[in-house]
Amino acid sequence: MDIEQIFREESARILATLIRLLGSFDLAEEVTQEAFTIAVQQWPLQGVPDSPRAWLVSTARHKAIDIIRRNARFEAKREELVHEADPMLSDNGWPDDRLRLIFTCCHPALMIEAQVALTLRTLGGLATEEIAKAFLVPSATMAQRLVRAKQKIRDAAIPYRIPPPEEIAERLDAVMVVVYLIFNEGYNAASGDALTRRDLSSEAIRLARLICELMPHATEPRGLLALMLLHDSRRETRSNADGDLVLLENQDRSHWNQIQIQEGLKLTESALRNGKTGPYAIQAAIAALHAQARTSDQTDWPQITALYDVLRQLQPSPIIELNRAVAVGMAKSPEAGLNLLADIESREELVGYHLLSAARADFHRRLKQWPEAAASYRQALSQVTNQAERRFLNKRLSEIEDLQKM
Q1: pLDDT at 84 over 60
Q2: Neighbouring C-beta atoms of residue 294, cutoff 10 Å
Q3: C-alpha distance from residue 319 to each of 29, 109, 294 (Å)
C-alpha cells in the first residue's frame, strides 16, 4: 500500500480522530497535513509501518503537542494529550470518530448549510471550490461559511460526541444530506480526470450503514442506503476502459452489481412500507425502476415521472425539477422535455449548471435539431469541470458537427 492510497483511504478517519482529541478543526487539519508530509519523507527510507493510521495519528498528535506547548493558553489541553494513553479508537470500535464528527458538525446551533459544508470539508476532504459548486454559491461565500462554522463550534464548546437519543432526530436530516453529498461527489466527481472517486462513495455507504444501526426504526436512513447502493451498483459500467463516460441507456446491465441491487431493492421496499415515506425512499424507488429494467427501452418512464411529481412536493429543488423534466422528455416527447427545461431556465436557479445545458442538447439531438444541439453542447462544455464528462460532451459535439456537414 503506497502513501497516496493510504491518504485516500485513511485521511478522513485520521482527521476525525484528531478533531476529537484536539477540539480544534484548524489544528487537526494542520497536523494531519504535517504527518503525511513526514510520512512522504520517511517511509520511502524506513518502510511503511505495520499500522500506518496509528503511526500518522501518533505523529500528528506529537506535532500538535509541540504547537500547543508554544501557546500557554492551551496548557490544560497539552497535559491531557500528553497523558492520554491511546488516542486511537480500536478498529472494531463503534460508532467511530467519523460518525462522531458528522454529528458534531450537524449540531442545530449551526445553520443547515454550514453543517453540511463543514462536514464535507473535514470528513469528505472536498475542496472549498467543490463544496461551493455543490451548493451553487461562489467559493468566497463558502469559505466564509466554513470559517464561521468552525468558530461557532469552538465558541459554543459544542461537544464531540454522538448526541443522546432525544437529540438525534433533530440532526438526522442534516447528517443524511452530508452523507448523500459525499456519495454524490464520489459517484460523479465535480472536477478532476476521473468520473468517480470510489473512496468517497464507499465511505458514504459505510456511514449510512452506521446510521441505520444507530436508528434501526427510522425509515429514511434505509431509503438513503438503498438509493446509494442502487446507484453504486452501476459504477463499473459508467465509464469504459479509457475512462470515458457511458450513459445509463448505453451501459451493459449484465455487469451491474446484482448483490447491491438486491439489497437496495429490499431496503427500498422496507422504507416505502414502514412509516412516513420520505424523499430518499422516493428517490430509491426511482433508482429501483432503473435497476429492474432489463433494457433501457423497458424503463418505466411514466412511473418515474409520477415519482418525481411526489418528490417535488416533498422536497422541491431545481435539481429535482431538472430530473423530472428529463423523465417527462423520455416518457412523452423531447419537445415536452424542452418546454420544461425552458421554464427552469427562466427562473435562473441553475445558471451555469452544465447538466441543464447537456439535457437541452440531448433533447435537440433526439429531435435532429443539429444547430440547437451543437450550441447547447458548446454551452455545456463551457460549464463542465470534470474531464471525463468534458470528453463525452466533446465527442457528442463532434458527432453533431459532422451531421451538420452532411
Answers
A1: no
A2: 9
A3: 32, 27, 27
Residues 6+ apart with CB under 8 A from 204: 179, 180, 182, 183, 186, 228
Distance of alpha carbon 76 from the chain centroid: 37
Give the chain's mean pLDDT.
84
Q: Name 386's bridge partners.
A: 192
Contact 230, 187 (CB under 8 A): no
- Bond into 95 cis (ω within 30): yes
DSSP codes, 158-173: ---SPPPHHHHHHHHH
Shortest CA distance to 332 belongs to which of 310, 363, 291, 365?
Answer: 363
Q: How far apart are CA 132 and CA 139, in angstroms?
A: 5
Per residue in 156-215, pLDDT (tens digit) is 777 766 677 677 777 788 888 888 888 887 787 555 555 567 777 887 898 898 888 877
Instruction: Extract the C-alpha cell encoding 50.
Output: 505495520
The H or E element containing residue 334 is: helix 334-346
